[in-house]
Amino acid sequence: MTDDEAIATDLTLRVKRLLDDVDLAGVSREDFLGARFDAGLAWVHFPPGSGGLGLPARFQEFVDSRLRAAGAPEHLPGRNGIGRGMAAPTIAAFGTEEQKARLLRPLWTGEHEYCQLFSEPGAGSDLAAVGARAVRDGDTWVVNGQKVWTSSAHTAQRAILVARTDADVPKHRGLTYFVCDMADPGVEVRPLRQITGEAEFNEVFLTDVRIPDADRLGEVGEGWRVATLTLNNERVAIGGGVPREQGMIGKAAQAWRERPESRNPAMHDELMRHWVEAEVARLSAARMRQRLAAGQPGPEGSAMKLTFARLAQAISGFELELLGEDGLRYDDWTARRPESVEYTGRGAGYRYLRAKGNSIEGGTSEILRNVIAERVLGLPAEHRTDKDIPWKDVPR
Amino acid sequence: MTDADLLYGDVEEELRASVRRLLAQRVSTSAVAAAYDEPADFSALWQGLARDLGVAALLIPEELGGAGATAREAAVVAEEIGRTVAPVPFLTSSVIATVALLESGDHETLAALAGGEATAALALGLGAAAPPVSATVKATPTGLSGHVANVADAGTATVLVVPAEGADGIELHTVSVPGPGTTVTPVPSLDMTRPVSDVVFDDAPSRRVDRGDPRGAIGEALRAGAVILASEQFGVASWCFETTLDYVKQRYQFGRAIGSFQAVKHRLADLWVEVGQAGAAARYAADTHARRDPDVAVAAAVAKSYCGTVAVHAAEECVQLHGGIGMTWEHPAHLYLKRAKADQLALGTPYEVRGALAALVGLPRT
């Protein structure tokens, strides 16, 4: 028996034991997920005690598919993606044993939903320029500042937060990373209405927010390195693939099929160009997953996000033109508070407007091109005037 | 889709290394460029590939004297040929003509093709995306008569595989060249690394090789051609991208490497994304063809239309980002631009291919 077969046999047994120990009909989602965490089946690549078994990550799908087939409770779709996708790997990598034991289980079960307090009005692409100040007061830190573009801030119990703890050193060296309790009385969340009419995101005002030093992740001044790990996971999470002819191209193809009266030869070729590009993007995502599974991780996450943003914008704009006069009607301008983004569940006008954010959120397309050019292609880095001077002296 | 293998296996990488080594030893871009000025003989290069490495035998089954490999291996060879713009009849003889003969049931010619003693060309214009509805060449009891324009690699072929109009529709014949009644006239070609010729038959003796309507066989040949051409286009694009990336790192203006300017960096980042995705599309087409997956028709059309456009874009960026040197005869960029543009017109332009794809995926033009 190979090592992989031995692991698979062991995992099968652990999954069976987990399922035998609970009453699937009666157990609550949170209780089941807690038992799954305790069994080391939450993230098999995390260490024992942190919801894992210290196995290669490729065995996760083995566990997930078996639990899914058994009808075991799963996470609510679209909820706590920041917690599981970004905060968890950061805590696992930089947390102390005490922090991992305390923070990961409620994060996994959904008891603690997370949001991300990174971007600020003055620190967008230049994230290392964040100005929210954290000042030490004995065993706690006192935080003051403003964060923006925070999804789920109005529902989250916890936040991952990057704040400036030293203004006298260059920007990358004066940052520290915290886990913040969103119930602190100094946290004020205001909806941020966007061009679609809804308020998917928030502005978060931090006034004398007190964070115990025990909730600091990584060393003081090490916040940039910690945040980089979080953001690398963000780009992976956004750059996923979809089945053939789904998402934006699926809606455009559907409109083409349902509206023979709108067809003309010029638009037909444009539709087919988009169709081909969407299919090629899908194949590229599939290949990226195969390379990862074969242990050949590539830098293709940034490429996928660039392509996804470009196609989403081009295809949603095309779809509106295809609809002609019907494209003049919009489905709903009310300031809704959606819990997840659902492109295909809304009208074409919504898709067009929301897709504008795809080349801005999670790294603008311009920044991603810099990332590819410098880190993948080895081209010279941008000229930086602020690199070696104290943060407080940088012009702003 | 779930079964598709979009990566390269160890055997494929070994084949790539052998082909790359041989091409590096036996062909240079200056020798290729010379073919634009006067007729050049690249038969030794082709013999090396065909006879020493056996690339001509890849798609021929073992029982017919071939290697019994698949489009996955042939695609790797095409990538390397694209990277060097080598003037060899791999696509035209070892893929298109070979598949046409294989699918129509003619096994006599294949053994000679497998060993590299013979090379063949399908007597259709290189632009053909689909089998002809009627042929310009007539099959009569006295032989073949008629003409075909723009037949790729006919100038070096020893066998022409000719769709001809017989009494009951299209037939497929083979004609030995040189031979009586057949005139092959090479014409100046946009891409002299895959030159085209005009072919005239005047009562040329021939052998009929099909067993009934050969349009299915011709269609299979053109599809295999599109699949392999996509990988060649990926190879052309890869060379253009890598060469340009190297150049912008070492070319200094304004006291800086030009690759440090965002206007240049961003173009290269976008091109890197495009070329990488062309590789995924080409690999998927080769893999579906190798597994006889019914999705191959869609996969071939996607790959051919996408990779053709990317190769041209990569070659155009190569010329532009090299600045003045990219416009010279001395620099090899022009060889790749000509190959890329001619490849884009071969086997159906991207417009035509997208039109055919639309029918396959239920998105009618009207």
UniProtKB/TrEMBL annotation, chain A:
Record-linked Pfam families: Acyl-CoA_dh_1, Acyl-CoA_dh_M, Acyl-CoA_dh_N
InterPro entries recorded: Acyl-CoA_Oxase/DH_mid-dom, Acyl-CoA_Oxase/DH_mid-dom_sf, AcylCo_DH-like_C, AcylCo_DH/oxidase_C, AcylCoA_DH/ox_N, AcylCoA_DH/ox_N_sf, AcylCoA_DH/oxidase_NM_dom_sf, Mycobact_Acyl-CoA_DH
Gene3D superfamilies: Acyl-CoA dehydrogenase/oxidase, N-terminal domain (1.10.540.10), Butyryl-CoA Dehydrogenase, subunit A, domain 2 (2.40.110.10), Butyryl-CoA Dehydrogenase, subunit A, domain 3 (1.20.140.10)
SUPFAM superfamilies in the record: Acyl-CoA dehydrogenase C-terminal domain-like (SSF47203), Acyl-CoA dehydrogenase NM domain-like (SSF56645)
GO-annotated molecular function: flavin adenine dinucleotide binding; oxidoreductase activity, acting on the CH-CH group of donors
Assigned protein family: Belongs to the acyl-CoA dehydrogenase family.
Record-given protein name: Acyl-CoA dehydrogenase
Organism: Planotetraspora silvatica
TrEMBL record, chain B:
One annotated GO molecular function: acyl-CoA dehydrogenase activity
Keyword list, A-Z: FAD, Flavoprotein, Oxidoreductase
Top-level taxon of the source organism: Bacteria
InterPro entries from the UniProt entry: AcylCo_DH-like_C, AcylCo_DH/oxidase_C, AcylCoA_DH/ox_N, AcylCoA_DH/ox_N_sf, AcylCoA_DH/oxidase_NM_dom_sf
Pfam families tied to this protein: Acyl-CoA_dh_1, Acyl-CoA_dh_N
Domain Acyl-CoA dehydrogenase/oxidase C-terminal: 218-349
Cofactor dependency: FAD
Domain Acyl-CoA dehydrogenase/oxidase N-terminal: 12-108
Coiled-coil spans in chain: none
Keyword Magnesium: no
Family: Belongs to the acyl-CoA dehydrogenase family.
PANTHER family with a match to the protein in the record: ACYL-COA DEHYDROGENASE, ACYL-COA DEHYDROGENASE FADE28
The name this protein goes by in its record: Acyl-CoA dehydrogenase
